[in-house]
Amino acid sequence: MGTIAELEEKLSQPSKRLISDMAKIEGDIMILGLGGKMGPTLAKLAKRAVDAAGLHRRIIGASRFSNKGLHQELTDFGIECIPVDLLDDEALMKLPDARNVIYMAGNKFGTVGNEHFTWAMNAYLPGRVSEKYRNSNVVVFSTGNVYPFMPIDSGGATEKIKPSPIGEYAQSCLGRERVFEHFSVKNGTKMLLYRLNYALDLRYGVLLEVAKAVASQNPIDLSMGFVNVIWQGDANEYAIRSLLHCESPAKKLNITGPEIVAVQWLAEEFGELLGKAPIFENRPSETALLNNSARAYKLFGDPSVSLAEMIRWTAHWVKTGGEQLGKPTHFQERKGNF
Questions:
Q1: Among 107, 175, 170, 182, which Cα is nearest to 143's?
Q2: Given pLDDT bands bounded at 50, 70 and 90, which one contains residue 281?
Q3: CA gap 183, 38 in Å, rounded
Q4: Which of 139, 236, 310, 313 is the most buried (most CB within 10 A)?
Q5: 157-171 confidence digits (pLDDT tens)
Q6: Is 38 within 8 Å of 199 (Cβ atoms)?
Q7: Which H or E run contains 137?
Q8: Measured between alpha carbons, how far is 273 from 136 in angstroms, rounded to an integer?
Q9: How far apart are CA 247 and CA 244, in angstroms?
Q10: Contact by Cβ (8 Å): 96, 30
Q11: Listed residue (327, 312, 328) closest to 1, CA to CA
Q12: For position 1, what pLDDT does the model report?
């Protein structure tokens, strides 16, 4: 892949298993918070799956759409785009009803110094959305940050591990989950809490950050020495298919790649592909933010894109000067400050 068009074609190509499951999903799909890193390709993936299944269902997206070009691009693709500030209660309540909702709204970066807004987005808004879409199936994007750091040899946190979020961002994400859980019980709304880390495409993500550091000969901090990653296309597919697995009380599901990846090994792999010797600083800690997604693979099957493919594609993207979003993950953060 050498162009944005080729990348987005890959990210939005529906698999046979997605097309099959889309035929089982009844009703339209509303995506709240469409304008983030993952939303546009998730909407395109859903639209292509609907078309491939020969269905007549609406894919609707609500977002501020500060990027007017994105609004036009998605509209041209056949997605119904609604510009809205979701914190405007009157505007939220006027949104179309939908049998299925994928909730992607939230705030992470810039939390320090603006904590009130993060809590409003991550913990207040879910209550209003829960009232608006009380009769829908709701997949709620959450994060593995709600878990404590896990020992490297633990296999990662399963859904049975008790949340222990570090820092205000992660605390507000647990707040989001608890509010949605409350309304799932109160109203009988079927929900799934989608605990994701770390999704990537070639324009952003952990692999891009490590590859860039190797290429530019910047030191790589090993204090968070291990990570999970998953291809964004697979994460988006799992999110759509999760609409078939919503429950009341809300179901919890971890989503990430199958490997626990050593950052040092990852940098050395990029070093070979890019012809640069990586530079390291600090030593790996004995714990890291790690998830175990075995439960998801039992439901959906293994990811379609392997770690080896993601590494190779990312190295090529960096070599050829591919476009970047400029949105770092801050995966190295161990104190929860975002």
A1: 170
A2: very high
A3: 26
A4: 139
A5: 999 999 999 999 999
A6: yes
A7: strand 137-143
A8: 47
A9: 9
A10: yes
A11: 312
A12: 83
CB atoms within 10 A of CB 105: 24
User: Residue 75 corresponds to which amino acid?
Assistant: T
Residue 111: pLDDT over 80: no
Tokens of 11: 């990210």
Length of the chain: 338
The phi and psi torsions of 41 (rounded to 5 degrees) equal -75, -30
Taking 3-state DSSP, the helix, strand and coil percentages for the chain, each rounded to the nearest 5, stand at 45, 15, 40
Q: What is the pLDDT of residue 118?
A: 94
Structural contact between residues 111 and 168, judged by C-beta atoms closer than 8 angstroms: yes
Domain 4-201+229-256+289-303 has CATH 1.20.1300.10: no
Q: Which residue has the tokens 């993060």?
A: 118
Helix (H), strand (E), coil (C) string for 260-308: CEEHHHHHHHHHHHHCCCCCEECCCCCEECCECCHHHHHHHCCCCCCHH
81: left (phi over 0), alpha (psi -120 to 50) or beta: beta
CA distances in angstroms from 181 to 30, 106, 157, 205, 292, listed in the order given: 20, 17, 20, 29, 21
**Pair 67, 37: CB distance under 8 Å:** no
What is the structure's pLDDT at 156?
Answer: 97
Element (H, E) at 49: helix 39-52
Distance CA 269, CA 135 (A): 48
